[in-house]
Specification:
It contains 22 helices and 58 strands. Helix 1 runs antiparallel to helix 12 and helix 6 runs parallel beside helix 8. It is an alpha+beta fold. The radius of gyration is 31 Å and the shape is globular. The protein has five domains: 381 residues, Alpha-Beta Barrel (TIM Barrel); 140 residues, Rossmann fold (3-Layer(aba) Sandwich), CATH 3.40.50; 95 residues, Golgi alpha-mannosidase II (Immunoglobulin-like, Sandwich); 139 residues, Jelly Rolls (Sandwich); 153 residues, Jelly Rolls. 23% of the residues lie in helices and 29% in strands. Strands 38, 39, 40, 42, 43, 46, 48 and 49 form an eight-stranded mixed beta sheet that branches. The chain has a six-stranded parallel beta sheet with strand order 10-8-3-2-1-14.
């Protein structure tokens, strides 16, 4: 092979693509004036829409209150999402009556209502209805499992459905199925392949199993079951009040085997012209033509997944004027267990989407920070000229997710191509297990809820700007997914990891260099690829450079034929490495010849190569030596939008931009304002510097016409002024979480234990092997119906103790019990009843106990004399005017201490999750501009109150807020907000940013000392400072 050495002298014509700006038919904005009109106060379609979780016995009042709260905080719509804990029967008449009622309420207040297509996920089984109404959806075999043996004994597999028998002959495996009986009893190397179904009993599948989405008719059955009721109550609103349908993680994985469906072999033979049955061992071992077989097998699975899942849904939604959105398993690449090529699936969605979970780049780098997952999405959006790209965002990040985190995570995915924010989740109920189901959750129980509109306004403005116009990239990088196919299976995880790391590292390097590019999916290229002149075309986008990444060994024949034409017409291919040598899994002389062509350039990715081939004169950004910058550039008919973000929370970032245009203005998504900016113009190009704090962002509009620039940048100096020490005030009652209890079950004392263990013991005693049924999908009313099996005398008793020191202020002290109406409740032997008051959740019932508590040990007893499976035993809480002191086992309640600056936890408020105010009265001789600065603090957000009026928040670095003080006396308050992490936990597992339900269920065998509970240090650790801004000239 002839290697062309890359030097700066190599010249390639990378002419700008001619973009024809036709009036878009999808309603997108395409000019500055329209953008600014919408940007100031974005409409419903640009506002975020959370997964609105129905997870209780849904009442109309729940709908009224939650929709009103979501609207108040700037939400634009909801996805009705049934989830763990749902008591109302899914897809019943009652369900659709509530859906219809939700539509009416949403119409009244101006919200959109989206359909979510499943009872939890993965999509396809309709909460168990497909399984029960279509047995052939699961019982005809879905997995081929292999068992090896030295002596062929078929009788040992009587319980299995044997499909094939193989015998090893040298280094080959021979299919001896037809002669297996004659071979039985012989010794040698044998493999028996047998057919099984998906395992049943899964809590995710209502106790049944998943279904075969690539079997004929299964998707149609799922759609019929799911959509019929929505059509009846809301069909007339499809495409209007109901914009579309969300699908969640459909998949075709196989548990411990090879994926099978009844007509797999027939389809395979028709597509590839040979019998897969004879080559099955090549799918798990390096035998025969294993690369070819694995490639062909995965390609057939992909086509079946598309034809039998994606295509029916796409055609249905097109016919019914609906937007099909949702996501697959995009974060697992190069693991293709759930599906051969997620990128190929996006092409069938009018609004493709992804899911970005957690808030920990260290623990889960496959989630936030995974550039590849977002670039796959954005590339398909570009290539199909889609208007919007969705991300389900924030799931499992924890109750302690801060505004700073929300902004930084959202900025990152928006800079890479997302422009529709779908929050995970806004759940109606927090009872029992529900509060532990991958929090954060966004509703009025959050301490900061009344401030959340700052977030929704910000992202709605970003959505306006970053869905306007189009992103036009000129470079296409082929994704090596068909190479991954060849190494998937047979214990080749190391090789897969190497391919994955190599490709992801390349993506990160290009992002760091501020390169603009799209990724190429070979399945999409097969259906939508072409060559026009020297351009390689994928549907609606044309590219001047095609890049073959390092470690890409295979290219599909359709892509290869197009590359031959592209290179022959003078197009340029940049081959980063020497791995490519296969076409459809087989060596190809024609490919070798193509690689030897003059304009097939080979080399290694480095800065020089980036400068020579990846950058263009019309737009340049200097890479930052610190931080982690990403950008999004959108082209409109009269200018460009440029958004830049810094994903790092530790380092500042600096860059400078050089771009074609006449002038620049800042368009600020925080407040919707347009502001002049300093820039220079030279040789027909604009340039301006950008400085970003950790987690910071910046957005400008580059005009094709002249706008007067800001004068040279002047940094006004600041002078620290002397101010009084803040008066600190707790704004809500303190809280004690009591999470250990003594269990008496059917008259037998089981001892003191963590509440989650007690819950499991109780449920298992009454016939629930897996604990609470409300963390399992309910089919019809199967969980509620089990209540009929319980009888009077099926009883348990939970006793929670707390110790109180003398002198505690008892006035207003309350006990909080979840679902108090299910229990007889006693305190110190006296029965008490819940009133009308609640705390955080309508089913967190408050009981006045000020007359019943005493110094010393207090006992709270919850008794259930006729077991009700809805009980979901949980901690109990004490609220009041007290402090807490850690002791050997938990906490003592002690007389309240005045709170000061410093950690709330260390001052006796470890479970306190609400807010604390820090107030100064400041006399000012002369009014003017001042700045509040928070030197050291921790909270989800800080609110600034000036003269009893809320004037804004502090959420991100550098943790400052400019204010206008009046002459005379000014009252300035900083209110710091905590989070539900401290009251809900998890308390006995250290978890940050990676929050899953099991973390909440783990507790020590005995109650640990209070100082071992994991709670966060919230508060102003140092008093806030006030600076006078000197208007320097």
């Amino acid at each position: 092979m002839k290697i062309k050495i890359l030097t700066i002298s190599v010249l390639i014509s990378l002419a700008a693509c001619n973009t024809e700006f036709k009036p878009p038919g999808d309603g997108r904005i395409n000019d500055y004036q329209s953008l600014i009109e919408e940007f100031t106060d974005p409409g419903t379609e640009y506002r975020s829409a959370p997964l609105w979780v129905w997870n209780n016995d849904v009442e109309r009042e729940d709908i009224d209150l939650s929709l009103a709260e979501l609207k108040k905080q700037g939400i634009g719509g909801v996805f009705i999402h049934p989830r763990i804990g749902l008591i109302t029967e899914y897809l019943s008449d009652e369900w659709f009556e509530l859906v219809e009622y939700s539509m009416e309420k949403a119409r009244e207040i101006g919200l959109k209502v989206w359909i979510y297509d499943e009872n939890v996920c993965p999509s396809g089984f309709a909460g168990g209805h497909v399984y029960n109404e279509m047995p052939e959806s699961y019982n005809r075999g879905t997995i081929l499992e292999t068992r090896k043996m030295k002596k062929l004994v078929l009788d040992s597999l009587e319980s299995k459905k044997i499909k094939f028998v193989f015998m090893k002959d040298g280094d080959k495996w021979l299919n001896i199925t037809d002669n297996s009986k004659k071979e039985e009893g012989n010794t040698g190397e044998y493999a028996v392949v047998y057919l099984v179904n998906f395992s049943t009993g899964s809590r995710s599948f209502a106790g049944f199993s998943y279904v075969d989405l690539i079997a004929r008719g299964v998707t149609e059955k799922f759609m019929e079951i799911t959509m019929k009721g929505y059509e009846e109550v809301g069909g007339h609103e499809f495409g209007k009040l109901i914009p579309g349908v969300f699908t969640d993680e459909p998949q075709i994985g196989a548990e411990d085997g090879l994926r099978y469906t009844p007509d797999l072999f027939e389809i395979f033979n028709h597509r590839w012209g040979y019998r897969l049955e004879d080559e099955l061992m090549s799918l798990t071992e390096e035998t025969g033509d294993w690369k070819k077989v694995r490639h062909d097998y995965r390609s057939v699975l992909l086509e079946m997944f598309i034809d039998r899942w994606s295509r029916p849904w796409y055609e249905y939604t097109e016919k019914n004027n609906l937007i099909w959105t949702g996501h697959y398993w995009e974060n697992t690449w190069p693991d293709i267990y759930h599906g051969p090529d997620n990128m190929a699936m996006y092409a069938w969605h009018q609004m493709p989407g992804i899911d970005m979970l957690f808030n920990s780049l260290e623990d889960r780098p496959d989630q936030f920070g995974n550039n590849l997952a977002v670039k796959e999405l954005a590339s398909i959006v570009n290539q199909f000229d889609r208007h919007r790209a969705l991300s389900e965002t924030y799931g499992g990040a924890g109750w302690d997710l801060r505004f700073e985190d929300m902004k930084r995570l959202g900025d990152w995915e928006y800079a890479l191509g997302v422009n529709f924010l779908n929050q995970h989740i806004s759940q109606l109920s927090l009872v029992g297990y529900r509060k532990q189901n991958y929090p954060q959750s966004f509703l009025d129980y959050d301490p900061y809820w009344h401030l959340y509109k700052y977030q929704t306004d910000y992202f709605s403005r970003l959505s306006v700007a970053l869905s306007s116009g189009r992103q036009i990239n000129r470079i296409l990088i082929l994704e090596p997914t068909t190479t991954v196919w060849m190494y998937y299976g047979g214990g080749m995880q190391k090789k897969l990891n190497e391919i994955g790391k190599s490709f992801k590292d390349m993506i990160q390097f290009l992002e760091d260099q501020q390169v603009e590019y799209d990724l190429g999916c070979e399945n999409v290229i097969k259906d939508h690829g072409s060559v026009k002149g020297k351009s390689f075309v994928v549907n609606k986008r044309s590219y001047d450079l095609v890049v073959i990444p390092s470690m890409m060994e295979n290219i599909d024949r359709a892509s290869f034929i197009l590359l031959q034409e592209y290179v022959a017409k003078g197009g340029t291919d940049l081959h980063l490495g020497k791995s490519l040598h296969l076409v459809d899994g087989k060596r190809s002389d024609a490919l070798t010849k193509l690689i030897d062509e003059e304009n097939w350039i080979s080399g290694i990715l480095n800065r020089q190569v980036v400068n020579d081939y990846f950058l263009h004169d019309d737009f340049l950004m200097v890479p930052s030596a610190t931080g982690r910058i990403h950008h999004m550039r959108r082209q409109l008919k009269d200018g460009q939008v440029l958004f830049i973000s810094n994903f790092s929370l530790e380092e500042e970032a600096n860059t400078s931009v050089e771009i074609e245009g006449a002038s620049v203005e800042v368009i600020c998504p925080h407040n919707g304002e347009v502001q002049p900016v300093y820039y220079r113009k030279e040789n027909g190009k604009l340039s301006f510097p950008v400085h970003l704090y950790p987690g910071g962002s910046y957005m400008v509009y580059v005009h094709n016409k002249k706008v007067v620039p800001l004068g040279k940048i002047v940094e006004n100096s600041r002078t620290l002024i002397k101010s009084p020490e803040s008066k600190v005030q707790l704004l809500h009652p303190n809280a004690l979480n009591i999470d250990y209890a003594n269990l008496n079950l059917m008259g037998e004392n089981k001892g003191k234990m963590y509440y989650a263990k007690a819950s499991d013991v109780i449920y298992q005693r009454f016939g629930y092997e897996n604990g609470s049924p409300w963390n399992i999908v309910q089919y019809k009313l199967s969980h509620l119906d089990k209540n009929k099996l319980h009888k009077p005398g099926d009883r348990f008793e939970l006793s929670y103790n707390f110790s109180m020191q003398p002198g505690v202020d008892k006035q207003g002290m309350k006990l909080v019990v979840e679902q108090a109406s299910l229990y007889n409740i006693f305190i110190n032997g006296k029965e008490i009843k819940a009133g009308q008051d609640t705390w955080l959740d309508p089913d967190f019932n408050c009981i006045d106990i000020e007359k019943h508590v005493r110094a010393g040990i207090n006992e709270i007893k919850l008794t259930m004399n006729h077991f009700d499976n809805r009980c979901d035993p949980s901690p109990v809480y004490v609220l009041g005017n007290f402090s807490l002191r850690p002791v050997e086992k938990g906490w003592d309640i002690i007389p309240v201490k005045d709170i000061e600056t410093g950690s709330w936890k260390e001052q006796g408020f470890p479970f306190y999750s609400e807010s604390v105010s820090y107030t100064k009265i400041l006399g000012i001789d002369k009014g003017g501009k001042y700045e509040i600065r928070l030197p050291e603090w921790n909270g989800t957000v800080a609110e600034i109150i000036l003269n009893d009026k809320s004037i804004g928040i502090i959420q991100s670095q550098p943790y400052t807020k400019e204010i206008e003080l009046e002459e005379g006396s000014n009252k300035i308050s900083v209110i710091v907000y905590g989070s539900l992490k401290n009251v809900f936990g998890p308390h006995h597992v250290y978890a940050r940013g990676f929050m899953r339900p099991p973390a909440f269920r783990k507790g020590k065998d005995t109650m640990p000392p209070g100082n071992e509970y994991d709670v966060l240090d919230y508060g102003l650790m140092e008093d806030f400072e006030i600076y006078k801004i000197n208007l320097d000239k």
